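Shipment paperwork, digital attachment
Item: protein structure file
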Amino acid sequence: MAKRRKVGNLLALAVLSTVTARPMHPYEMASLMRARGKDRDIDIKWGTLYTVVRNLEKHGFLAVEGSVREGARPERTVYRITDAGREELADWVRELVAVPERESPRFVAALSVLGALGPDEASELMRRRLGTLEREIAEQDAALADAADVPRVFLIESEYELAMRRAEAAWVRALLADIADGTLQGLDLWRAFHETGEIPPEMAELAERGAEE
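Attachment content:
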């Protein structure tokens, strides 16, 4: 089971990882995280960055190193990671790597209520999704090829994301094939519901059975 973190926002994980290199102010942290593509790896809400940094300081994971002023810009507070921050970062990464968590992507939510659409419309929308996935896979393949001189350890999150996209694309292709050739179990009930507007008795029975459970 995942631990309850004092600062549980994943942006905090990215901040701690970023400031291990050297002390820096929040604007510099954001610039470096964007340059590294952290906003692709983590769902970052940039407006919360200063709050996250202050919370990390409050709990002893960051400490104020000093302040800097660049030209006419306001003075900026520089933060460094503490020993407690390094321990929190390492412990958090250990947990995220070793402990699987059930995630609920938006696509899974849509699949759970796919019956709201007819089979033909659902197939067309999934073909559209598949086209997008295939373009993204091609782009990621090209990006990894261009980064062939970068040590693989710095690209493993991109490799993982690419593998997940390929797996999703393969699954969508298989589902589309099952709908197209009529082998998807329950397809006739699904189609009948949208053709008649009435819930087939078999579907109603399944729904009631689920409510009882």
